[in-house]
Amino acid sequence: MIRYDEKNKAFLLNTENTTYGIAVVDDRYVEHLWYGAKIEGENLRYLLREDEGPLTLAQKKRETGAFLDCAPMELPETGMGDYRESALCVRSVAGHRASELVYMGYEIMKGKPHLEGLPATWGSESDSSTLKIFCKDALLGMKVTLLYSVFNGSDALTRSVIVENKGTEPFYIEKILSACLDMDDRGFEMISLAGSWARERHIQRIPLGYGRQNVASFKGESSHQEHPFIALVTPGTTQDTGEVYAMNFVYSGNFIAQAEKNQFDSVRMTMGIHPEEFTWKLEPGDTFTAPEVVMVYSEEGLGKMTRTFHDLYREHLIRSPYLHQKRPILINNWEATYFDFDEKKLLEIAKDASQLGIEMLVMDDGWFGKRSYDDSSLGDWYVNEEKLKGGLCELVENVKKLGMKFGIWVEPEMISPESELYEAHPDWAIQIPGRDITQSRAQYVLDFSREEVVDGVYEMIAKVLKSADISYVKWDMNRQLATLGSYALPADRQGELSHRYVPGVYRMQERLITDFPEILLENCSGGGARFDAGMLYYSPQIWCSDDTDAIERLAIQEGTALVYPVSTIGAHVSVCPNHAVGRTTPFETRGDVALLGTFGYELDITKLSAEEKEQVKEQVEKYHKYNDLIREGDYYRLASVADNGYYDSWMIVDKTKDRALLFYVQVRARANAKSRFIRLAGLDPERRYTVEGREYTGNTLMQAGVRVPAEFGDFKSRLIEITG
Q1: In the 8-state DSSP scheme, what is residue 536?
Q2: What's the mean per-residue pLDDT of the chain?
Q3: E strands along 596-703, which residues?
Q4: How far apart are CA 157 and CA 17, in angstroms?
Q5: Largest CA distance in the chain
Q6: Over 90: is that where the pLDDT of 475 sits?
Q7: Within 31-188, where are the H helices?
Q8: 492 is a catalytic site residue
């Protein structure tokens, strides 16, 4: 999978269908050769243009600056003459910002090393390989290791960077990006995922012009507004055709993802921790590890890219024992009651839900401290027995008697100014002395860079979890970071807080799933503000958005499924008119859209009509019938209402290709319209399939399609099963 060509001083990392090439130039520079379709048995050094000025050997000393501003570097640095976006900026104690890495050697190993304190893909010696390239800056005493890993049966490649201080003086890392890719422009367009609260991860596609185009967050989380994913695609790229270069960050904090086109029509694509609010002091003997970037190249369009990400994350990132299990169908009381509930109301919901086949009751915000609104008690993690008379244990046991499991909501990272915890430990909040702490939702952020804060909060929550038979935890985060300051960090380390915070969250989640391995953890951040690969390392599912409207969810779930397996998408059926947009949609459509995810309910089931309750039973039956296929199968996007304005369609195909499920949503009805043919994908062209009582070859279904009748009215959905 990985080999070193000694004669040509080149590394070749081969996956099933791709090649990534790296060259050592002048025994000094680590440069990029090639990333794309698989090439074997060729010397690719001609791609470096080494015979063109200013890159010729004779000119390099005279024109080092011009050389550095053209060379396709694997880890470009600040301060020496490369004026494109750098991936590494280091400041010496003397105040100089420059480094010059020189190649020192390499190691090729079986397996994949763990990234200390960070989520990352994992692999065994039998299914993965890793290349380590060692470089140093002698003046700073800095050693840098470039990490590249590939996996059997996958066209993904992962990258990271480790910086060590081998010198006698500290230095400051002011910028460290985990991946850089230099290549010639081919008329690229950039795809990103943008949005806001309640409309996360909408697909955006724009031409790549000269200069720098980026998506970024320095909110302390991956954010509602932008997302740690970008792809560069060749003109005309579709789901099935065209070339795609994609990057996704396995990290849950500040990030930047950027594409830059320069004067020579060269494109530099980078991704890593956002340098805003980031400085890291590295003392002699210390090490800093950058989070991982996953790279995917596809020459078969966006669909192949999507399925590569999905398979990699299911096989080499998500660790939960629930990964390949059918998740319990839950009902959450939030949109049913908000803060206005007691044990009687919860048991009413549980009773009706259990009779319809729903398997778990989740008690959302409002069960702890003196919490009756969102302005108090975060941090006071003990049960409010005035609201839940008899306590949590009695409530849980009564829910279990109905044949249901029980789940609970927590927001461990936050603290209310009006809380016992803040009164006892005001210094635990992130703050700048002398300045008012910026509030959001009447709450502050706890300083999770401090172990004593993480430990103190964890012990309170763990005590609650031990007090009753709890099967599920929804971990929420309802605000971003601001007024960054920590009482535990000296002045020259305050710039470390935004990053130190994120591994603090990871430490607590790791402890939670270790101490309570049977608990199903679902992450959430005001909806989908932290739906990222870093969180998936700890939880197999993430609440996708606080907007549960089925029509709004089409775009949200399409963008999410572009990168992440559908089994990770928290999706529920909610009441109409919808609480976010006021839209009324058919109950059946709400259920069909929610099936592309974990599936559950977000409503007061006691207020449903008899007809709606019968539909709940039907939806529960559909879930049990199709979830194994949806959870484990291959996802194909067939049509997008964002493109055509009228309908949405996708399908899931079993890995064996002997079964598939077609989803179709008619968003807008058209007058005087005929039926529509939906061309399927992913089937065996030679096999015969049965669709609604008739047989067709897979080739016929993929070339001619399945006929879907036009219906009267908006927002109508259909599920069509295809069996071999």
Answers
A1: H
A2: 96
A3: 600-602, 634-639, 647-653, 659-666, 676-678, 688-691, 694-697
A4: 12
A5: 84
A6: yes
A7: 57-60, 64-68
A8: no
**For 480-535, what is each residue's pLDDT tens digit?**
999 999 999 999 999 999 999 999 999 999 999 999 999 999 999 999 999 999 99
> How far is 368 from 12, CA to CA, in rounded Å?
56
10 Å Cβ neighbour count for 435? 9
Q: What is the C-alpha separation between 314 and 540, in angstroms, rounded?
A: 9
Token duo for residue 72: 């396709």
Active site residue 546: yes
**CA nearest neighbour of 393 among 456, 468, 493:** 468
> Which pLDDT score is estimated for 56?
54
Structure tokens at 367: 């069960």
For the segment 219-252, what is each residue's pLDDT rounded down to a tens digit? 999 999 999 999 999 999 999 999 999 999 999 9
Over the stretch 360-413, which tens digit does the pLDDT of each residue have? 999 999 999 999 999 999 999 999 999 999 999 999 999 999 999 999 999 999
Q: What share of the chain is helix, strand, coil (3-state, %, to 5)?
A: 25, 30, 45
Structure tokens given for 266: 């060269």
DSSP letters of 445-508? EB-TTSHHHHHHHHHHHHHHHHTTT--EEEE---S---S---TTS-GGGGGGHHHHHHHHHHHH
For 305-330, write each residue's pLDDT tens digit: 999 999 999 999 999 999 999 999 99
What CA dihedral angle connects 150, 570, 522 and 290, to 10 degrees? 30
- Would you tell me the crossing angle of helices 451-466 and 497-515 to the nearest 10 degrees? 30
Which is catalytic among the residues 476, 549, 592, 648? 476
- Backbone phi, then psi, for 553, in 5-degree steps? -65, -20
Report the alpha-carbon distance of residue 265 to residue 507 in Å, rounded: 43
List the beta bridge partners of residue 51.
Answer: none
Non-local CB neighbours of 685 within 8 Å, separated by 6+ positions = 697, 698, 699, 702
Number of Cα atoms under 13 Å in the Cβ half of residue 332: 27
pLDDT at 65: 85
| Residue of 546, 547, 549, 634 marked active site | 546
Mark 350-368 as b/e (b = at least 16 C-beta within 10 Å).
bbbbbebbbbbbbbbbbbb
The sign of the CA dihedral 469, 474, 478, 481 is: positive
Which are the contacts of 263, defined by CB distance < 8 A and separation ≥ 6?
210
Q: Which 3 state secondary structure label does DSSP give 541?
A: strand
